[in-house]
Amino acid sequence: MSTSTTEPTRKGFSGELVGAVLLAALGVYLLVDAGAIAIPGSSNTVGPRFFPYAVGGLTLATGALLALRVLRGDRGPADDGEDVDPDAPTDWRAVAVIVVAFVAHALLINVVGWPLAVALMFAAVATTLQGRMTPRAAVRPFLVGLTVGCVVWIVFVKALNVALPGGTVLEFLTSWF
Amino acid sequence: MGISDLLGGFADAITPVNLLFALLGVVLGTAVGVLPGIGPAMTVALLLPATYVLEPTSALIMFAGIYYGGMYGGSTTSILLNTPGESASIMTALEGNKMAKAGRGSAALATAAIGSFVAGTIATLLLALVAPALVQVAINVTTADYFALAVLAFVAVASVLGSSPLRGLASLCLGLYLGLVGTDVLTGQERFTLGIPQLSDGIDVVVVAVALFAVGESLYVASRLRKGSVQVIDHKGSWMTRNDLRRSWGPWLRGTAFGFPFGVMPAGGAEIPTFLSYATEKKLTKHPEEFGHGAIEGVAGPEAANNASAAGVLVPLLTLGIPTSATAAIILAAFQGYGIQPGPTLLTTEGPLVWALIASLFIGNAMLLVLNLPLVGLWVKLLRIPRPYLYAGILTFASLGSFAVNADPLDLVILMGLGLLGFAMRRFGWPVAPAVIGLILGPIAETNLRRALAISDGDLSVLVDSWFSRVVLLLALLALVGPVVLRAVRGRRATPEESAQQQEDREVQKAGNREGWGA
User: Fold this and answer.
1) Domain DUF112 spans what residues (chain B) (predicted)?
2) Which of A22, B15, B205, B441 has the most Cβ atoms closer than 10 angstroms to its Cβ?
3) How far apart, in whole angstroms, are the C-alpha atoms of residue A53 and residue A30?
């Protein structure tokens, strides 16, 4: 599962193979779909298809070569960072929670306003990352998220005129501003 | 040319509004440099919507401040945080972290900050001197030459950043593809839009950059979060003794000499010069026994190299319009947002803007010295932010920045989709920066290629018509094939970090106490 090792060769299945194959597939898509780009009549020189063909070819070649290397056991060194524990197993649940919470907040923005949508997302992400997922442990993250969301909204909407739905309550409360 | 223009630039930069934006930029830059998980590229990307409301001069001064500030802040993190950081500051971490553990944290911070100031000032001066001279050469550059330069930048960025050229190319391809999506500027034809109307304007640079950097990083860190409380080493001891100063000034100057040229070259990146600086100081030092245990030369040199290369990167950006780092690519996007295309004519058409920008870099550098030496305690507090809140906050700002562009929730769904791509790339060891550079430089390269071919009536030989493009394309070929050949000859190519790690391992073994740093 873990690709964090810096050893150059390691046997076993790697997710990178999927990535490389998908990249090659993207190359094929670019090459095929480039043929469908309409070319305005009069041009006798290089039109809008030329560069897509070139990029498609490069992408296909890179994907194929990379797939080959991965199959032969070459692994890229996984990224490191200050907060990354290179030996930790992948926490897929945290990843899933973040993806779901973020997409949900995107769909909620126009319904409940940005500050509340962001507070819910903030609470879900922070609660998951702190490792305790009880309703009680989510109270503080939610309050922090709500404060951050409201303050940021007030600064950006009232002071900088960014278009951001605030939700009925906050918009009513700050309508005098 | 030169001095009088620069003085005019100072006159523009010293207005209260521009000073305020310079201050705002360096404060933000230092903050994001200190915080793990976000960097200057992502911050500038998040603030790109500011170009809709701000004057070009103010916005660009702020962005440049963020860029310089990020370099300063990164050193604080690598010295005081008990865990290794990003590759550009890893050389600083090597010795700086050891110094902090030995109770000399303040001296390490001081030599890093003053070294950054010295290097930043000299390098900005070099920028002011080199840029007009380079423009004289670049003014004769044809569209074909320009295309060759873009190719060199692509290849160099892909093969130099990260450990494997092929993975850099993979990242570059993704960026070039994302840059193709949308309406072709020359003929108005839609390309790869899948019939989705929102995609006909192309995928916004803000969304891509924020997704790959902020969302991708948050997902990746979440998947492997270091558990337990954040350990920050106290910064103790005196700032700099006379002895420290005597040992630092040489490395500062040599680091600058390494950093600036590497920044200027399209092969960009701060990793190689910091590594070279570290290796040089290790060879030249009169205290070889201290290396591996906190030698001040090992902090002073790489940190100066790091900052000098940041100034160097601005040379190709301002004179040729070629970005060689992710942040530079996004600053280029900011110029384009104002309808300004950086290139050889920039200094003549937008002279006051460029000189005000350069002048503000000097001012920002001085501000950063003040911000980073006496106020370092403030930044250290930032380092202690609980990580669950930090990453939830990063996602909050990612949402804000991307939603602000078009007020369309679909952008946020695309953001998460591309964020997952960034997550996968981090797992696979594909560097992210080539994708951003491909996205922004790709369309520029295509336009120049097609203009060149339109002039030649489709004759491809126009691409190698001038000596300039021949040399540049040859360099690109070397950059692409060189590492592959080297690997075939010597076995797998070791990255600078790995070599340094090996070197350090040997050092530690010699001393007889094997203690993994950051453990």
Assistant:
1) 19-437
2) B441
3) 7
pLDDT at B445: 92
Q: Is B399 on the interface with A (CB under 8 A)?
A: yes
CB B415 within 8 A of CB B210: yes
Distance CA B340, CA B374 (A): 39
Chain A residue at shortest CA distance from B401: A162
Instruction: Quote the CA–CA distance of B193 and B465 in Å, as a whole number.
Output: 35
**Rounded to whole angstroms, how far apart are CA atoms A91 and B138?**
51
Residues of chain B contacting residue A19, judged by C-beta atoms under 8 Å apart? 170, 424-425, 428, 430
Identify the closest residue of chain B to A68 by CA–CA distance.
B166
A115 CA: distance to closest CA in chain B (Å)? 10
d(CA B405, CA A37): 28
Q: For residue B95, which of B359, B281, B270 has the smallest C-alpha distance?
A: B281
Reduce the DSSP state of residue A48 to 3 states and report it: coil
Taking contacts as CB-CB distances below 8 angstroms, the residues of chain B near A152 are 396-397, 400
- Contact of A145 with chain B, judged by CB distance below 8 Å, is answered with yes
Q: What is the reported pLDDT for A9?
A: 41
- Average pLDDT score over residue span A105-116: 93
Output the CA angle A1-B178-B270, nearest 5 degrees.
70
**Higher confidence at residue B513 or residue B453?**
B453
Q: What pLDDT is recorded for position B517?
A: 28
Nearest CA in chain B to A33: B192
Mean pLDDT for the stretch of residues B435-454? 90
Looking at CA atoms only, how far is residue A127 from chain B in angstroms? Answer: 7
Cα B52 from chain centroid?
Answer: 24
CB contact under 8 A, A125 and B391: yes
Integer Cα distance of B67 and B134 in angstroms: 23
Instruction: State how far Cα B321 lies from the chain centre.
Output: 16
Contacts of B233 (CB under 8 A, 6+ apart): B79, B80, B81, B82, B97, B100, B101, B105
Cβ of B223 within 8 Å of Cβ of A95? The answer is yes
Which residue intervals of chain A are DSSP H helices?
15-34, 50-71, 92-112, 114-130, 139-153, 168-173
Q: Any idea what the Cα angle at residue B498 is, between residues B310 and A23, rounded to 5°?
A: 80
Q: Look at phi and psi of residue B197 and say left if phi exceeds 0, alpha if psi is from -120 to 50, else beta.
A: alpha
What sign for the dihedral angle of Cα B469, B473, B478, B480? positive
Contact B189 A48 (CB under 8 A): yes
**Rounded distance between C-alpha atoms, residue B282 and residue A148, angstroms:** 46
Q: Which residues pair with B190 in a beta bridge?
A: B183
Which residue does chain B place closest to A150, by CA atoms? B396
pLDDT at B471 over 80: yes
Retrieve residue B209's tokens.
Answer: 């950059």
First to last CA, chain B: 54
Does A109 contact B at CB distance below 8 Å? Answer: yes
Amino acid, res. B83: T
Distance from CA of A107 to the nearest CA of B (A): 6
Per-residue burial over B464-501, b if 16 or more Cβ lie within 10 Å, else e, is: eebebbeebbebbeebbeebeeeeeeeeeeebbbeebb
Contact A62 B173 (CB under 8 A): yes
Q: Please give the ipTM for the structure prediction.
A: 0.89
